[in-house]
Amino acid sequence: MSKPWLAVPHRTEDFIGGCLPACCQMALEFLGIACTQRQIATQIGYIEGAGTPASNVARLSSWRINVQYLPEAKLDDLRRGLEKGNIIIALVRTGELPYWEDDVPHAVVVVGVDTMADIVYVNDPAFEYAPIAVPVGDFTLAWDALGNPCAVIGHISQENAE
Amino acid sequence: MSVDQQRLSAVLEKLTPEESQIILQLADFLAQRREGITDARAARRKVSAWLIQEVGNLLMGGEPRYIAGERPVWRVPVVVSYGRRGEAAFVDVDAQSGALLVNEQTPQEIMANVEALVGSSSSN
């Protein structure tokens, strides 16, 4: 294996607070579906200032893809999801991430979990470059602060349906 | 009196009677409910998780405040972090049981406050 992460195309936020639509856009593009962040925001019921209930990402299934929202997942769920070729969107508190200076709720795409090096790789829509390597401990703190929610997104397949 | 007690006593003397009362109530509560108590961090996490799931992913629990009383609670502000920042509402967590004190209307009430906060920034 040359890279320990999925080659998910990176996109930055098109508007303030647009981290979740940007993450959804990355996931959809990875699955071969093109659409704008505004279209996604409308689809998931985005409201300025508040965003949307995170479980609304399940509405992406209208693009005929498999979306599972896990309100309280474990790091192993992320690793297993990635091994199946799924994209993971995790909701985190940035105050615990070493490369952030602000402390806000945020969404990132998890593209790799390297258990040997204790590194989680994320595509963070607030930054131009990707992926960003985050120590597992920092990622775990940031994720746990919001209860460990995530969405697992992939093609509709028998394996994903199980 | 031990050194720690002397220090505590010195701190209490600097507080207003109201502040001292709250501290003493908190200390009493902690002593009585050492088992199974919900701490501030857990209360904040619980509120943040609920906000993300039920209201909006851009909202987060702020710094909890302990409210003493017959049914002590952690009062957790709902922080708006994007656009105009501020506290739009608060959510209480039962300090004893850890239960979120919300009902079916709470998400709509919070959303109305957030929209008012964001709207007031747009009109400025």
Question: Which secondary-structure class do the elements of chain A indicate?
Answer: alpha+beta
Specify the number of helices of chain B: 4
- Cross-sheet strand order for the largest sheet of chain A: 1-6-2-3-4-5
For the termini of chain B, the CA-CA separation is 57 Å
Quick one: which chains have the greatest interface?
A-B, 25 and 25 residues
Radius of gyration of chain B: 18 Å
Q: What's the SSE pattern of chain A?
A: HHEHEEEEHEH
Fraction in beta strands of chain A: 15-25%
Provide mean pLDDT of chain A, rounded. 93
**Number of E-state strands of chain B:** 5
Describe the structure.
The complex is a heterodimer of chains A (162) and B (124). Helix content of chain A is 25%, strand content 22%. Chain A has helices spanning 19-30, 37-43, 75-83, 136-144, 158-161, and strands spanning 66-70, 87-93, 105-114, 119-123, 132-135, 150-154. A six-stranded antiparallel sheet of chain A has the order 1-6-2-3-4-5, with helices on both faces. Chain B is an alpha+beta fold and 124 residues long. Chain B is 48% helix and 20% strand. In chain B, strands 1, 2, 3, 4 and 5 form a five-stranded antiparallel sheet that branches. The A-B interface holds A 16-17, 19-20, 47-55, 71-72, 91, 93, 104-105, 107, 144-147, 149 and B 44-46, 48-50, 52-60, 80-84, 111, 114-115, 117-118.
